[in-house]
């Protein structure tokens, strides 16, 4: 860590408010035990067992207290990038994290192969969901990320990157698909090769606000952030023309501060994005077209099999995008599964096992006839 950080002009100018601190966090800090000695700081990077935190005094390498580790029962109980925490500085370079101040918003996901929930980033104002125009382009994936953002109270934005790789006609077609599926969600088109759309992206990012870049590996998140920073701080590898994608090597979440005052978070590419507590986020995203169709016969209609379902009638009549509907049902089922208790999941698996056993027995009887 740089020992000269306290003499750095940029650190002298920065205030806690510049990096997202507000009256809400101040109120919670005042009610924290031992406030007289504790100072607010924001988590800017997460490593194995340690963190980097930043406040108006500078940057510190920090660890949580033994008491907090003992009391933590879930991954959510540990700090995440974007969190505001109460720290006790030990010296000019090290500090101890005593507590996490309540999160205003957060993006979290459930691992497909685990029952645990992971906080991707906290206290975010907007989620910039990046896809490239190449083989990564997928409307269902956009919807999945948008649902995660909505569930966390965060504004989602679609960023279609690497637009230099396709013709104007193909770009217009993809943009048309985005507008048709997500008409009310902000979107921007970008290219780090031609700098197309970068000015619009810079203008969107406001001073003191925090923006989290999300997306799969190779879509160009880190390269976009480097462009916004005006220098190659995040290491990336050259774009492969044949594969239409760069090799993504970001291995940790980290926060960066733009010279105009905006705050951005880079994330490792995610192969899987499990829905976590996202039922409300799914319904919010599909509210206009599906989730709140008041003309259904039953008020609690699931829009799957009920008689008198207006949504199913609209699909049959070609009035509703069947792919959007199918993705809605898939996301709803996934969130419902994750929200079940372990006992409920075991009972569900047990009923399914009995169903399979019965089906096999009936099939054998039929074959023996």
- Categorize the overall geometry: globular
CATH class of the largest domain: Alpha Beta
Q: Determine the CATH topology of the largest domain.
A: Rossmann fold
Radius of gyration: 24 Å
Roughly how many Å apart are the termini? 78 Å
Order of SSEs: HHEEEHEEEEEHEHEHEHEEEEHHHH
The biggest sheet amounts to: 6 strands, mixed
Domain count: the total is 3
The fraction of residues in strands falls at 15-25%
Structural class of the helices, strands and pairings?
alpha/beta
DSSP, total strands: 15
- What is the count of DSSP helices, taking H or I runs of 4+ residues? 11
Strand order of the largest sheet: 10-9-8-11-15-14
CATH homolog superfamily of the largest domain: P-loop containing nucleotide triphosphate hydrolases
Shape-level CATH architecture of the largest domain: 3-Layer(aba) Sandwich
Mean pLDDT: 79
């Amino acid at each position: 860590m740089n020992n000269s950080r306290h003499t750095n002009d940029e650190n002298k100018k920065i205030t806690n408010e510049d990096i997202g601190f507000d009256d809400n966090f101040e109120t919670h800090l005042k009610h924290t035990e031992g406030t007289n000695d504790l100072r607010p700081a924001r988590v800017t990077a997460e490593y194995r067992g340690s963190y980097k935190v930043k406040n108006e005094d500078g940057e510190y390498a920090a660890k949580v207290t033994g008491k907090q580790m003992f009391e933590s029962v879930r991954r959510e109980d540990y700090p995440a990038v974007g969190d505001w925490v109460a720290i006790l500085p030990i010296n000019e370079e090290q500090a101890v994290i005593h507590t996490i101040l309540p999160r205003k918003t957060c993006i979290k996901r459930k691992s497909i192969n685990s029952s645990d929930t992971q906080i991707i980033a906290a206290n975010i104002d907007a989620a910039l969901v990046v896809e490239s125009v190449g083989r990564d382009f997928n409307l269902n994936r956009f919807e999945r990320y948008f649902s995660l953002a909505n569930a966390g109270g965060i504004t989602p934005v679609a960023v279609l990157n690497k637009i230099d790789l396709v013709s104007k006609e193909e770009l217009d077609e993809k943009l048309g698909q985005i507008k048709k599926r997500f008409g009310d969600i902000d979107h921007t088109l970008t290219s780090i090769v031609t700098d197309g759309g970068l000015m619009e992206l810079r203008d969107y990012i406001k001073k003191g606000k925090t923006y989290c870049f999300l997306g799969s590996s190779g879509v160009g998140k880190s390269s976009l952030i480097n462009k916004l920073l005006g220098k190659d701080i995040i290491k990336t590898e050259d774009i492969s023309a044949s594969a239409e994608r760069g090799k993504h090597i970001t291995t940790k979440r980290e926060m960066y501060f733009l010279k105009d005052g905006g705050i951005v978070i880079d994330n490792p590419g995610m192969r899987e994005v499990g829905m976590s507590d996202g039922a409300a986020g799914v319904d919010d995203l599909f509210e206009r077209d599906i989730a709140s169709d008041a003309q259904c016969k039953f008020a609690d209609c699931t829009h799957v099999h009920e008689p008198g379902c207006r949504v199913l009638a609209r699909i049959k009549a070609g009035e509703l995008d069947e792919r959007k509907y199918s993705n809605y049902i898939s996301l709803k089922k996934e969130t419902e599964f994750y929200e079940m208790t372990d006992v409920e999941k075991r009972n569900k698996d047990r009923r399914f096992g009995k169903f399979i056993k019965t089906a096999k027995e009936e099939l054998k009887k039929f074959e023996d006839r």
